[in-house]
Design a protein that fits this description.
heterodimer; A: alpha/beta; five-stranded parallel β-sheet; globular; B: alpha/beta; 12 strands; disordered C terminus
Chain lengths: ~425, ~575
């Protein structure tokens, strides 16, 4: 029996050794770290089998006709609502039997009414949403059962379901009263803000995956830019003197660091924007008129550490991704000391952040590829929805009970669409 | 009317210009009739006037003072500097509409603990918004560390030491060439040993040059002087390189041996690529065959339009990326026209295959150890070998590097001065010059006589002069000199004395090209056109000037050569 003991120990040793070298056998020979957020190591969970989603069949005037009128909606940063619909139609989590569904999805494209310049007008969106909800509440009994508590909607506009591009106006309107009980999947996220309600899921803005793939440069190109940013500092059309745009933070960045050789910042639109990001160590992601921006997605894809300058912002999938370990948060009041803050980060911390960013599941989670791949943003949304299950018994209302006020809100919203 | 205009401009500023301003219907026309509106109009006009006088929008200061009680007003004192600097534009003098400036406090009561407020914020600028050198250094260290990490992850795995072999000798162009190689080697991110073999023994010149590099160097002397003809020179260099290889064997240096001739230029990718060699590799070398005489090059180009010589030497591969043969430099167009001696005016040709295009694993040179059987022992070589292929018995084992020879990773160029051209030792001018001479005139009074620049016009003037023809003819046929060193040569100018004006023009034209600036040559030509002055100009004292040079200078002046001040004005 002595020999068997030694054999057993030997096998344990060998297994230990093999397991140790396993993480380093990645295809690209770059050691990466596993990412686990506050919800645990959930980025690679598979939502199939954990939830069932029923997709309402709305008349095409809510979705297809709008898209036909303006196909630019497929490429702008609010395109997530359209791609989510398409993904759900062909996903294994979809169920055709609403009785067994955990979540209900209403495909209404509220951010597809575009100006000639391509920016969405939100003025008709509340009416559109209201009309859609009236439709589903009258044709199916599931809305009235819970007053929307097991329904989810995608509202990727600037301030989510507040449906306005100006922050003051958005705050004034607040979230559409009819969506008070539903789960909102939106890009906007700011703590203690009217337009972010408890239990919402923040998603990244849509960035075209193929376009970014075509601009990849070899990984051994040394990163020689310290801080990189391209974009507006002053919104000359609307706020020429600064102070309103970005709460003065972008203007502060410019005024303090315009002649600093470490900061490669300007308002130009170079064709090598993506390539330059891959040659930079830090990429600034300051707020604009809204706190979120596609720059975060681009920084993550290109391995550049995002420097987030937006007070109280809630970043995408905040419970699955530990953003404090990946990016650098800088308060807006600390912007004049940005260079001190960034240079005082120890190199080991910087290398760890780069390792986390290099994790392929991190990059996948920020993208909306077509066709969908495992671990991408669609799956993260479903994972987030699955984590909210099972529904609390209290969301099911007694028949006849009403919680929502259907006539609340500005008078203009009550007009039929 | 004014209020409407005010409202319009305000609306345009506050809302996006391309978005509808429909919802902003709070400013109705009824406001005109109320006394409050009139009060605001008057106040506005007054503010405009005051701002005009003062030169900045003081209205903000007023509001800052007035609304200090409002906790939501987020402006802070240090933004005023930015405001002042930006608001000197008098056209934008109209103060912000007071109704809109102060953010409505009522909106924020729904946000319970938010520390973020909506509205105008100050632009924070620190008192000295300029880079701090300590932080810049820290940032550079961070970048270095990141790049080191990148290199270790994506670059070459287990980089081997590089052993660089350079034969050199003391001459005018040595500083130029050796500094170039030295800088390239200092940038190499791998361990390096530099073996410098010097002809005619170790000298202080070379030692002081390579000591500046900070690299690990082995400096050996070789007991022969570098001969003057290219053939001999190549032979001696091969022997010197073999000497270096013997050192590698004695010291059992472990790494990759590459041959960096001092006149070559290396790219950084070369050093990354040679790390891939297993035993014996070859890279493509770009050949920049230099001819000092542009006329010759032009002729050659015209004649060779169908078949220009491919300026690359190196391995040639077939479609399956296996070594199939060699590209060598096509020397047939230059047959008979190539330079024989160093600093010949003619084109300098490379060998069939240059040493610098080969790299080998240093273990091939060791006496013992496991090495393949196709390598010959250095000690058993009976004579000199022309290139490293002479070390191996079977040329098919050579590994082609640089994506099978498609990448040219280094360039070959031979530019040298005359064998007897002088330069200040260690390029330090000591003792300092007492003589101030114009730039066209040499600093070195004891240099040998200058030789003619153009053959044809000079032939034409042979008949008038009898005195010095023999000397110039012989010296011309043997040693046509490089243009760089044909500044004052005495007998050249005695020849020119009898040259007619057109030849003077050509001399000046070609000589002016040594300076290389078109306006200089224009100036010279202009100066030259003036009638020959007979005044004799002596600039400064001629402490050490010998008879030759003073004669020469006098002759220059006689032909109306531009004087020093004319030159300095134009160039």
């Amino acid at each position: 029996m002595e020999i068997w003991r030694w054999v057993f120990i030997g096998i344990i040793f060998l297994a230990d050794f093999i397991v140790k070298i396993e993480p380093f056998k990645l295809g690209r020979s770059q050691p990466t770290e596993r990412i686990s957020g506050s919800a645990g190591d959930v980025l690679e969970d598979d939502p199939v089998g954990r939830l069932k989603v029923f997709v309402y069949e709305l008349p095409s005037k809510y979705n297809k006709k709008i898209l036909q009128k303006d196909p630019r909606c497929l490429n702008h940063m609010f395109a997530a609502e359209i791609y989510m619909h398409r993904f759900l139609l062909s996903s294994p989590v979809r169920t055709l039997n609403p009785e067994e569904a955990d979540w209900f999805y209403t495909p209404v494209y509220t951010t597809c009414d575009l100006t000639p310049n391509g920016l969405p007008l939100p003025f008709k969106s509340p009416r559109m949403m209201r009309s859609a909800i009236q439709l589903i509440s009258s044709n199916w009994p599931y809305w009235n059962r819970t007053e929307g508590a097991d329904h989810f909607f995608l509202v990727p506009h600037d301030f989510g379901a507040c449906f306005h591009y100006q922050e003051e106006k958005a705050i004034e309107r607040g979230i559409l009263p009819m969506l008070q009980r539903a789960t909102l999947v939106q890009t906007f996220g700011q703590r203690n803000h009217v337009c972010l309600k408890e239990g919402s899921i923040t998603i990244p803005p849509y960035a075209p995956p193929q376009k970014m793939q075509t601009h990849l440069i070899p990984e051994k190109t040394p990163r020689s830019i310290f801080v990189y940013f391209r974009g507006l500092f002053y919104d000359v059309g609307n706020d020429p003197e600064g102070g309103y745009y970005a709460r003065g933070a972008r203007a502060a960045v410019w005024e303090n660091f315009k002649d600093n050789p470490l900061f490669d910042i300007s308002t130009e639109h170079p064709t090598t924007y993506y390539e330059d990001m891959q040659r930079a160590v830090f990429c600034l992601c300051p707020l604009g008129w809204a706190p979120w921006s596609p720059r975060l997605v681009e920084a993550v894809i290109f391995g550049c550490i995002p420097v987030i300058i937006a007070d109280d912002i809630v970043l995408p999938f905040a419970d699955a991704i530990p953003w404090e370990e990946i990016g650098v948060y800088v308060d807006e009041k600390d912007v004049p000391n940005l260079d001190t803050i960034l240079t005082s980060i120890p190199p080991e911390v910087i290398l760890r952040k780069q390792r986390l960013l290099a994790n392929p599941s991190m990059k996948q989670a920020m993208l909306f590829p077509q066709p969908a791949q495992s671990g991408d943003a669609f799956h993260q949304v479903l994972n987030g929805l699955a984590r909210k299950l099972p529904h609390d018994k209290s969301v099911y209302l007694k028949p006849g009970e009403r919680v929502l006020n259907w006539t609340a809100g500005p008078v203009g919203d009550l007009k039929p669409w | 009317m004014k209020l409407l205009a005010l409202q319009q401009s305000y609306l345009n500023r506050r809302s996006n210009s391309f978005r509808s301003s429909g919802p902003l219907d709070s400013y109705s026309d009824s406001a005109i009739k109320s006394p409050a509106a009139i009060f605001w109009i008057v106040l506005h006009g007054l503010s405009c006037l005051i701002s005009l006088v003062l030169g900045f929008r003081f209205s903000r200061l007023v509001f800052l003072l007035l609304s200090t009680s409002s906790t939501n007003f987020y402006t802070s004192p240090f933004h005023s500097s930015s405001e002042l600097s930006k608001t000197l534009d008098l056209h934008s003098v109209l103060p912000t509409n007071p109704v809109g400036n102060i953010p409505v406090p009522a909106l924020n009561n729904t946000a319970t603990n938010s520390r973020v407020v909506v509205g105008r914020h100050g632009i924070r600028i620190r008192p000295w918004p300029h880079p701090n050198p300590v932080e810049v250094m820290k940032a550079h260290n961070i970048i270095e560390r990141v790049q080191m990490e990148q290199r270790s992850q994506f670059g070459v795995k287990d980089p081997r030491k590089i052993i660089v072999v350079t034969p050199t000798y003391v001459r005018t162009f040595q500083a130029l060439h050796l500094t170039g190689v030295m800088h390239s080697l200092m940038l190499v991110p791998y361990d390096l040993v530099w073996i410098v073999v010097e002809a005619a023994g170790i000298s202080n010149e070379t030692a002081s040059l390579i000591a500046k590099s900070g690299l690990k160097t082995i400096h050996v002397g070789f007991n022969q002087r570098m001969p003057n003809s290219w053939e001999e020179r190549h032979k001696l260099e091969s022997e010197m390189r073999l000497r270096a290889l013997r050192i590698v064997r004695e010291k059992k240096l472990d790494g990759i041996v590459m041959f960096a001739d001092d006149s070559n230029m290396h790219s950084m990718e070369l050093f990354d690529e040679i790390q891939n060699v297993k035993w014996f590799g070859a890279v493509s070398v770009g050949i920049l065959a230099n001819s000092a005489d542009t006329n010759e090059m032009a002729d050659q180009k015209k004649g060779e339009e169908e078949n220009p010589p491919m300026p690359v030497q190196g391995p040639a591969c077939n479609v399956s990326n296996m070594l199939a043969g060699w590209h060598t430099f096509n020397t047939s167009p230059f047959a008979g026209k190539s330079a024989v001696y160093i600093d010949d005016r003619a084109i300098v040709l490379p060998r069939m295959l240059e040493w610098s295009g080969f790299v080998l694993n240093s273990r091939l040179l060791w006496k013992d150890g496991d090495k393949p059987d196709w390598i010959k022992d250095i000690d058993t070589l009976d004579g000199n070998i022309e290139n490293p292929l002479g070390l191996i018995k079977d040329p098919s084992v050579v590994e082609p590097l640089g994506s099978c020879g498609r990448q040219v990773l280094l360039w070959w160029l031979r530019v040298e001065a005359r064998a007897d051209s002088k330069f200040p030792p260690r390029w330090i001018i000591d003792p300092p010059l007492e003589i101030t001479v114009p730039s066209k005139r040499t600093l070195w009074p004891d240099t040998p006589p200058e030789l003619p620049a153009n053959e044809k016009p000079v032939i034409g003037i042979q008949e008038p002069t009898v005195k010095h023809t023999r000397r110039t003819r012989t010296s011309r046929s043997k040693r046509p000199s490089k243009r760089k060193h044909d500044e004052a040569r005495a007998d050249r100018h005695t020849e020119i004395v009898s040259v007619n004006a057109r030849n003077e023009m050509s001399f000046d034209g070609t000589a002016a090209s040594t300076i290389g600036k078109s306006d200089c040559s224009a100036g010279l030509r202009e100066g030259e056109n003036s009638p020959a002055e007979s005044k004799i100009q002596y600039t400064g004292s001629r402490g050490g000037a010998e008879k030759n040079s003073s004669e020469w200078e006098r002759s220059l002046d006689r032909i109306g050569f531009p004087s020093k001040d004319k030159l300095s004005k134009r160039c």
